[in-house]
Amino acid sequence: MKKTQASQKQSSSKQASPKKSSRKAAAATAAAAPDEQSITSVLHESRLFPPPEQFSSVARVKSLREYKKLRKRAEEDPEGFWSDVANELHWHKPWRKLLQWKAPFAKWFVGGKTNMSYNCLDRHVEGWRKTKAAIIWEGEPGEQRTLTYGQLHHEVQKFANVLLSLGVRSGDTVGIYMGMVPESAIAMLACTRIGAAHNVVFGGFSAEALRDRMNDSNAKLIVTQDAAWRRGTEVKLKDAVDRAMPECPMVKHVVVLRRTGTPVAMHPGRDHWWDQMMESVSGRCAAVPLDSEHPLYFLYTSGSTGKPKGIFHTLGGSMVWNHYTTRMVFDVRDDDIYWCTADIGWVTGHSYVIYGPLLNGITTLMYEGAPNWPEPDRFWDIIERHRVSIFYTAPTAIRAFMRWGEGHPRKHDLGSLRLLGTVGEPINPEAWIWYQQTIGGGNCPIVDTWWQTETGGIMIAPLPGATPTKPGSATLPLPGIMADVVRKDGTSCKPDEGGFLVVKHPWPAMLRTIFGDDERYRKTYWSNYKGWYFTGDGARRDRDGYFWIMGRVDDVVNVAGHRLGTAEIESSLVSHHDVAESAVVARPDELKGNALVAFVTLKSDKTPSDQLKETLRNHVGKEIGHIAKPDEIRFTDALPKTRSGKIMRRLLREIASTGTISGDVTTLEDFSALERLRDGEEE
Ligand code: WT7
Questions:
Q1: What pTM was computed for the model?
Q2: How many domains does the chain have?
């Protein structure tokens, strides 16, 4: 497909009235602001998509005017605003004080007592939702299971009793090292029921990563499974636990779920089978009323340097924010089948596979395996068979779907979809349009949601019935979120001037600290701007106040005195119809200070050539101006990514400048991608 032209044609015929596309070269803007204070923004995307009328007419928030009213109320009457939101949930004891803020330490709903598991389960089981599907699960080999709210409630109580019988108490930490099986949700909910904090470690991480995370968070018990299915092979989770255990002196017990049936070693006294333990416990375990600031979970993020940070979240604030944001951003309804494709090992899996959907009493779908197993149409097949209505995934996945070709989604009826979402990286406008047209059939609003592990939940995103969307923009902050783009000196940037994304007021789900390291917490997030949270992202705000995330500040490149966000140049490359994905980095250059190197992955059916390199350079020159034209283009069949799908630009910088890699590559998804790049191998 000739992407740009074709999709625009389609979009103007199907969409209510998207304004004409115009990508303006912004050389003038670029030349005007080349200082250390700010970041030069070069990409301008002005397509505008109003929410489809049939969506708005039944949405919770139906217009920008209503959104603005909510935002104003949250700012002027935070007590009233937050009380209304929090009181949609059950509190065993009401809070005395909404917020106690001694920068940079916040407490929310001070003095209140509540329970996450109670709010996700008991509240619904008391009414008609008892027989409603809470989790629909599909295994990679194809098995299907549905757990109603009533059944999930029962399983969670039993597993809570298993934890108690193995000595886990309120305030303890439980490690969860599992794949995408319903039992991982059961384990998480069981922890929250008795007041244990969970520390979920992504099943793709190594024994060493598991060991460090267990030790750093003082975990007493690990829940795991024999193995998990991934692309038809078994990921041996229990083996990895066994390798980590000799160096985890705090861990006393391991509970093992039988999933694939592969033989595993069981250490007497330490290891226990899930099914056997569940047989011997009672099905009743009351949810314990816990303080609003009681630990909810730890989740470790790697960041670009240093040892992983144990991001620490507490109960009341996370619960309220997960509930509220799921309701508002996905505008969930009782008849939705909601599917967020994230793994529970990431924060998205916590907030938007488990807690947000269950708090709202909707049906959440969990899929165990890979998107291209057995064929690249697996996701579309799942959507068709389960009649999924809300689909939430990552730009890296969308670019992979584009690369595999639109034949795969075209084979399936995706008519059940009514809303699409993305998270994790800036979405390239061309990928946005492809998503909207090919997956959404031109009828579904797209919510591009900006947030972080640290923020605990969505911060900047459209309200689908209210906010007109622009491809590539996360649009506007949610009511209650005071985001801004500022210069180094803290003054607000002008419209379209690139700067640093900050949040100027605490919000309920913000991280409380980096576990065991308040100093690092202070330094990382609160030292650049006094009293404001520094996100580490570059951004700009356009004339309508819309936020455009330009990527991590660490990835900004300085070319001939201009500080450019790599995301924009990458988006320009992806807008060429032969390109599937790209990553842009700088390497030292005698003349210009830095030269731009673009690593480019082509669509499956395209062939690399020198001529294409020249075409792509000129394409960027034409789209966004001479300043952003890559000096060098390197074709590759895969880019090095973290396991959560983020491109590791740090490694590419090293390859581009020295031709080798010396740094830490433990979080790399596919090591062979790197080997091939280093060897200069081209497709
Ligand atoms: C970083 C946070 C949030 C859950 C998954 C990632 C980038 C995230 C967007 C978006 C542009 C985005 C930012 C952010 N990011 N969402 N919609 N548009 N960039 O969580 O691993 O903590 O990463 O991901 O750079 O800081 P995370």
A1: 0.89
A2: 1
